Amino acid sequence: MPVYEYRCQNCRRRVSIFWRTFSEAQSGIPTCPHCGSTQLTRLISRVRVVRSEESRLESLADDFSFSDFDEKDPRSLARMMRKMASEIGEDLGPEFEEVVGRLEAGESPEEIEKAMPELLGEEGGGEDLGEE
After folding, report:
1. Residue 66, Cβ neighbours under 10 Å: how many?
2. Consecutive H or E run containing 99
3. Dihedral sign, CA of 118, 122, 128, 131?
4. Rounded to 5 degrees, what are φ and ψ at 33?
5. Partners of 37 in beta bridges
6. pLDDT at 127
7. pTM of full prediction above 0.85
8. 121, 88 in Cβ contact below 8 A?
9. Residue 6: beta bridge partners?
10. Cα–Cα distance measured from residue 58 to residue 122, given in angstroms and rounded to the nearest whole number
């Protein structure tokens, strides 16, 4: 079941259209779901490759070098976290984005822990992230 992407020449939006069969996609007339125009231009879609979690993690281990990682620099930690999240390929949610954004702004992990105690799983938890 193909999904094709188009650019509407009327409203300029990029739209994805799901077709039930390839023959329907070739003979059907794509219609913009936003403005109803049939003046759509088909685009070349990005290709996605489905990989196992093991394959993604192996790739991350092969690509990632700790030589450019500075554990004392929050921005360095943020770069590493973004790279790992990108390789995992899942949406890690708004909390992840907030933490990484704060690291990119230069805030230390300790400052973030104090400002966001809910990240510890309990309201404040009373434990340091490094303790068992």
Report:
1. 8
2. helix 93-104
3. negative
4. -70, -15
5. none
6. 46
7. no
8. no
9. 15, 42
10. 33
pLDDT at residue 72, rounded to an integer: 84
Alpha-carbon distance 28 to 14, whole Å?
18
The first and second tokens of residue 74, run together, are 């929050």
Per-residue pLDDT of the chain (132 residues; tens, 9 = 90+): 678 899 999 999 999 898 888 888 889 999 999 999 999 999 887 666 777 778 777 776 766 666 677 888 889 888 888 887 877 767 788 888 999 999 999 998 899 888 888 876 654 444 444 443
Query: DSSP letters along 26-54, please?
Result: HHS----TTT----EEE-PPPP-----HH
Phi-psi region of 49 (alpha: psi -120 to 50; beta: other; left: phi over 0): beta
Tokens of 7: 């650019």
Per the structure block, which two tokens stand in for 71?
């554990």
* Residue 42 φ/ψ, nearest 5 degrees: -70, 140
Token pair of 101 as six digits: 């954004």
